[in-house]
Design goal:
This protein has 380 residues and is mainly beta. The chain contains one helix and 22 strands. The chain has two domains: 35 residues; 335 residues, 5 Propeller (Tachylectin-2, Chain A), CATH 2.115.10. 39% of the residues are buried.
């Protein structure tokens, strides 16, 4: 069959379009691959901390963890709202042998003090994130209690739990029920992580946190996608002066699977490479807990600090880019309420260990557990 010139032109034009689409997709894919680090996360094992109490405090609510490499120990924050015992963090020694957690020993418990030097009263605090700074101090985040209009915070404490300094939180995060703004109840600053760039303790460093879910004013109840629009804040902590909010970015949480009751971001972890972090997305529903770990990149993400609301069209906003690193649902273990993430020591082969911990919600024995998961991270 002989094709006419017009038909031949049309066929050629179609092939040209297909070629452009294929090469464009390939170029986009290649660019995406270049953007992300070539990381690999391998599951090594699980450990359950069975201690029920320590020095007259109830063990549980482990929501954040940070590693002190010099002392080879960990500081773990409890999200107890001073209900069972005063707000506190624990110092743990985690022994790793043959690429497994062989033992966890609680070394100390430290109560947090407010500006007056007192323990925090009941239901005035909900500590969730913890990060060790180069100054050998701890930055700790609290979700506050939004339904009582108790504000979230990020504060600096010494290792004895004494208050040192407050990181200023923008007014848009402060809950005001009548104004329909601020963090949602129990969906505030679960996360906290520090990226130290300098060589000296007094050098500036970066601090990151992200809301577990969208702010009240960022939600359109007729658009379910808006519930997934979290805000990530990037601070610089200077040796002199107040902490500076450098930028704020849109973090889009994956859509929940069918049967999910709640989902959000319980923690972040800053990687050594500039602008790269890990994030945890955690869900709970009919099938139990689901947890995914993502690699996220802040390069080219829009600064949304001037956006009063994210409830409308956000096509002009470039969100933080992310790539799935590991879906823990594919592991052959029952997942608990995993909320904290941190590096541990180097493993014998030189690779980096990574530890996840769970918040048992102070549930009765057998219902939930203080779960510790050990991983090997390569590609840094």
């Amino acid at each position: 069959m002989i094709l006419s010139k017009s038909v031949r032109f049309l066929v050629g034009f179609i092939f040209f379009l297909v070629f452009i689409l294929i090469t464009t997709d390939s170029n986009v894919l290649a660019a995406q691959e270049r953007l992300f680090l070539d990381l690999n996360l391998e599951f090594l094992g699980e450990y359950e901390l069975t201690n029920n109490d320590y020095q007259n405090t109830k063990i549980g609510g482990f929501s954040g963890i940070t590693y002190d490499r010099k002392k080879n120990q960990y500081y773990v924050i409890s999200d107890d709202r001073s209900s069972f015992s005063p707000a506190r963090f624990y110092t743990l020694k985690i022994d790793i042998k043959n690429n497994k957690i062989s033992n966890i020993n609680i070394k100390n418990v430290t109560f947090l003090k407010n500006q007056k030097g007192d323990n925090y009263p009941i239901n005035t605090i909900d500590t969730e994130g913890i990060a060790l700074s180069p100054k050998n101090t701890l930055f700790i985040s609290s979700e506050g209690v939004a339904n009582k209009e108790i504000s979230p915070f990020i504060k600096e404490f010494d290792l004895e739990g004494n208050f040192l300094k407050t990181v200023r939180i923008p007014n848009r995060y402060i809950p005001k029920i009548a104004e329909k703004k601020g963090i949602e109840n129990n969906l505030g600053f679960e996360s906290l992580t520090i990226k130290a760039n300098g060589f000296m303790p007094q050098d500036p460093f970066r601090l990151f946190t992200v809301t577990e879910s969208a702010l009240v004013q960022d939600i359109d109840i007729e658009n379910p996608d808006t519930f997934n629009r979290s805000r990530l804040m990037h601070y610089v902590i200077n040796p002199f002066g107040e902490p500076t909010l450098v930028a704020e970015h849109l973090y889009k949480i994956d859509n929940p699977s069918f049967g999910t009751l709640y989902h959000g971001i319980p923690d972040l972890f800053a990687l050594p490479q500039e602008g790269y972090l890990l994030s945890i997305e955690r869900s709970f529903g009919m099938k139990g807990y689901g947890v995914k770990i993502f690699q996220i990149v802040m390069a080219n993400a829009s600064d949304i600090s001037s956006q009063k609301s994210l409830a409308g069209n956000i096509e002009n906003i470039s969100p933080i880019k992310k790539q799935l690193l590991l879906d823990l649902g594919k592991l052959d273990i029952e997942l608990d309420n995993l909320e904290g993430i941190s590096f541990g020591p180097r493993l014998p082969d030189g690779s980096q260990s990574l530890i996840l911990i769970s918040d048992n919600n102070f549930a009765e024995k057998g219902e939930q557990k203080n779960q510790f998961l050990l991983f090997k991270l390569t590609g840094l």
